[in-house]
Amino acid sequence: MAEEKRDVIVIGGGVSGLSAAKLLQDKGYNVLVLEARNRVGGRTYTIQDPSCKYVDLGGAYIGPSQNRVLRLSTELGIQNYKVNAHERTILYTGSVHAFQDLPRIYNPIVLMDFIHLWRTVEFCVQEVSLVTPWTCPRAEEWDNITAKEFIDKTCWTHFAKSSAMLRSLMTFATEPHDLSFLYFLWYIGSGGGVLKAMATTGGAQERKFIGGSMQISSRIADRLGKDHLYYEKPVRHICQDDNVVTVTTQDGCQYKADYVISAMAPTLVSKLSFDPPLVSLKSQLLQRMPMGSCIKTITYYKTAFWKGKDYCGDLIGIGTVCEAHDDTKPDGSYPAIMGFVNADHARELVTLPKETRKQKICEHYAEAYGTEEALHPVNYIEQNWMAEQYSGGCYMGTMPPGVLTKFGKVIREPHGRVFFLGTETAVEWSGYMDGAIESGERAAREVLHAKGVIPKDQIWQEEPEFPDVPDTPQKMGAVMYYMPSVTSFLKFVGTTTTITAVSVLVYMHREELAQVIPEKIADVFKK
């Protein structure tokens, strides 16, 4: 029997695609979601198991100013809780530095360098438009260098340089030599700036969902109904004319609609065939947005031993795991540390057996937390996102140098009756669930505009602050604002030293100068 024609087909049952489908179905449209996997959720993935109750193996964290995901999860009846951040955080660089809120830096040169680095980044971020970053005054300059080149040029000390390298690994699951500096700036800006990116409390890692983040997708799927969501339907071809779009899946089935929304990662869209073909810039852009390299790990223990050492579980640093957090359930059960193995470390460890990876991670924790208890887990779960056929990596597609200024303007550009979304296309909280929802609802309103239902100026809509999770703006204090850079400090010291040396010489030879100078002045007046 022939499949009925739909109003809209959404390709991809992740957070972004299902957000689009929900908005359109709520408006009364006949929507069909085609999902390649046997589950919804995309890059959010929650498993249920007696050994862990439940665990998020993909995107999990939310925080203040992520108002769309807070609003949608509340509408769906999903509760959240604050991640433990009461005790000290560990910065591990071969030696352990424990601190509350921000690292304590006692070397004045290191402190000046650290503050100057992130103050410079923040000032640069403020110059970059979130909607059109390729139009900022220094776009070409910043897009033609890597984040690593900026770091090497700006930093004097190993500590400041390491902090920036870590930010790249933690935020993008990508080495800084693979990132455009302009993209680095834009992305940090989309998440509220430097200080918010660094914070747990008040930042992007403040909260998680009780029961797991995949509930957002599964509850939307339940609302859509089984006639509006088909599983194991990888799309291979999209053909359109002036009136209809035909989508062909891997098993040869064809589905027709007035419009199509692609909710796939950019690199996966590049594998589809289009008739007519994509415009050149769009095709080229999709080939230039590699996914990050990430293995997400959760290591379970008999007790939360880190709390006994006055550690909250947060760990950042050089080594096997670049970032870790306490993943114990909010009721205190199933003590666990969640750790990200990212970028080069992920590509190295993925070649090893799972047991060897687990051992290396436990050894890293034993050194960082300073206890052999970390060597004796009771359970270990991991998700290698690089092996996910329908993701290609995590957390999101990134941009190397030259991509944003040359191709960025077409990232959200539709292809006839085909519209594009995904967290990579968001302007706020790109790479997060909140960005995915923003992009999904924006694409749905693009379809409504194409149907003549809403005017163009209603496609983009501001999201009001979620009242139950107010946002406290992170502002630079006077110390961060006025602290001199190492360069300016050394210039000051050099100038001061020169003046002092001259003054000493003048004082030592004051009698001789007292005789010579008046004569020289007199000679000038005679002339």
Descriptive report:
This protein has helices at 15-26, 67-75, 108-125, 139-143, 147-154, 158-172, 181-190, 194-198, 215-224, 266-269, 280-286, 305-308, 343-349, 354-369, 403-407, 433-450, 478-482, 486-508, 510-526, and strands at residues 6-11, 31-34, 46-49, 53-56, 80-82, 88-92, 96-99, 207-209, 229-230, 235-240, 245-249, 254-262, 273-275, 294-300, 311-317, 323-326, 336-342, 379-384, 418-420. The protein is α/β, with parallel strands linked by helices and 527 residues long. It has three domains: 6-81 and 208-291 and 392-458, FAD/NAD(P)-binding domain, CATH 3.50.50.60; 87-195 and 292-325 and 336-387, Polyamine Oxidase, Chain A, domain 2 (Alpha-Beta Complex); 485-526. Strands 1, 2, 9, 10, 11, 12, 13 and 19 form an eight-stranded mixed sheet that branches. It has a seven-stranded mixed sheet with strand order 7-6-15-16-17-14-18, with helices on both faces. A hairpin with a 4-residue loop joins strand 10 and strand 11 (245-249). Helix 3 packs across helix 6. The mean pLDDT is 92.
- CATH superfamily caption of the largest domain: FAD/NAD(P)-binding domain
Report the sheet-strand fraction: 15-25%
- The fold-level CATH name of the largest domain is FAD/NAD(P)-binding domain
CATH C-level class of the largest domain is: Alpha Beta
In the CATH classification, which architecture of the largest domain applies?
3-Layer(bba) Sandwich
Low-confidence stretches: none
Radius of gyration: 27 Å
Q: Can you tell me the number of structural domains?
A: 3
User: What sort of overall outline do the alpha carbons produce when their principal axes are compared?
Assistant: globular
- Average the pLDDT over all residues and give the rounded result: 92
Biggest sheet character: 8 strands, mixed
| Percentage of residues assigned to helices | 25-40%
Can you count the helices? 19
The assigned structural class equals: alpha/beta
Task: Tell me the distance between the termini.
Answer: 110 Å
Tell me which oligomeric state these chains represent.
single chain
Q: What is the count of β-strands?
A: 19
